[in-house]
Specification:
single chain; 8 helices; about 180 residues; alpha/beta; five-stranded parallel sheet
């Protein structure tokens, strides 16, 4: 089950997303489960408390938003999380220069020029690789880091603290402890 966050303030657009995802789910072996954030605060809360495999984000969140508050959510995802982000907006020009570079995990589409089904297909193609299960907040890499921390570093910390005086040795000690 692909967990998808949609950050969108327009109720009609949300209904279109839901209908399109229902249609997609009916014809796909990968099912998409969605969570909705209707504004900046809800979007930020969602990414801080839930795990996702992808996100669709609108830039302008609310009738008073003329600068693209959705950028804050995108920046937080790109700084702290690892899953594909698809921007579907009527205002791609609102993006800051540092948010304009696209790649497989990060796509920018003008809402009226990109079919949502195509976006869902791109999303599921990335999901099928298993990369979000490896790199995600509860992925294999994170699980391994937890094991290294609690199984190796913590139990050897007293030795490490004693050796902190020798700056040349400290990184070597960390490498040795992690390999144990």
């Amino acid at each position: 089950m692909l967990r998808l966050l949609i950050v969108e303030d327009n109720e009609e657009q949300i209904k279109l997303y839901k209908d399109t995802i229902d249609e997609f789910n009916a014809g796909s072996n990968i099912k998409i489960n969605i969570e909705i954030g209707n504004n900046l605060e809800e979007g930020l809360k969602q990414i801080r408390t839930n795990d996702f495999d992808a996100a669709i984000i609108d830039l302008r969140l609310g009738s008073e938003d003329m600068t693209g508050k959705g950028k804050q959510i995108i920046k937080e995802i790109k700084s702290n999380l690892r899953f594909p982000v698809f921007i579907l907006t009527a205002y791609p020009g609102d993006l800051d220069e540092d948010l304009k570079k696209e790649n497989v995990f990060y796509k920018i589409y003008e809402q009226t020029k990109k079919d949502t089904i195509e976006v869902l297909e791109e999303m599921t193609d990335v999901y099928k690789t298993g990369i979000t299960k490896i790199m995600g907040r509860r992925g294999i890499i994170e699980e391994t880091l937890q094991k290294v921390f609690w199984g190796n570093i913590v139990i050897n910390m007293e030795y490490w603290k004693k050796e902190v005086e020798n700056k040349d040795k400290i990184e070597k000690i960390g490498g040795i402890i992690c390999r144990q």
